[in-house]
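2024-03-11 09:14:02 DEBUG pipeline.ingest accepted 1 chain
2024-03-11 09:14:02 DEBUG pipeline.ingest length=273
2024-03-11 09:14:03 DEBUG pipeline.predict start
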Amino acid sequence: MTSPPPDSQTGPITEEEALDRLRQSEDRSQQYYGAWWLGRMRSQHPEAVPLLQQALRQRRPRDPGDGVEENAVARNAARALGKLAPAALAAVADLLEVLDDPDDGLREAAARALGELKAKEAVQPICRRLASGPDGAGALQPGTPRLMEPCEALLEALGDIGYVDPEVLAVVEPFVRHERPLIRSAAARTLLQLSGEACWGELLVDLLNHGHLRVRRAALMDLGAAGWRPALEPIRQTLAENSLKLIALRGLVERGNGDPGELALLACMDELL
């Protein structure tokens, strides 16, 4: 989750202080920090979700001179809601509405939250946003390096929700041919989660050998999220930080069924510590 603003890091605060910061409306940096705190600490206070919903509804139309910064609180509110299941299931309708917001950063935050909440109601809206494929949703916005849609977040959300349907697979599959390796990785992860077909795991393993560290890191996380056990040795050999390898291996352990290969996984994790 996004870090709090530096001027808010003045020391530990309590849950009630975080709620108070979100309640007030004069200082948006305090609202931003309050939203971050509630998500980071997985608050189960009965006011947490309603206050975050209220912050999410305060978003502004995107404007290069104003709207992006104004929406920082709404983005953090969306991210926080993704951490607060099951209480945040009450906010699914608000997050679905944000999927149609002009601010692609807000759409990204909402998609990730809906994935974390495993909101099946989001499957069709997300598929609609991706339906135009790599040449539409995956095309560059004019004059920026950003894509027309936050494809990585939208694709990963479909995998996290876990709704298996041929139409969903048909929407996702074209993105394994996207020019950006991070998008290919996200698409392969989702297809592996939904179909279990080894070819998608093998595509992710190929990305572990990519020349850019950022891509290798993403492939590690995607293999961990999918829990693909045949990736154990490639993960161990990847040129990346041991801390990230451990996170990926933990994903393989958590998504396994206690099969005999678990001993090898645990031994590899011990080796990396």
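2024-03-11 09:14:41 DEBUG pipeline.report The mean pLDDT is 91.
2024-03-11 09:14:41 DEBUG pipeline.predict end
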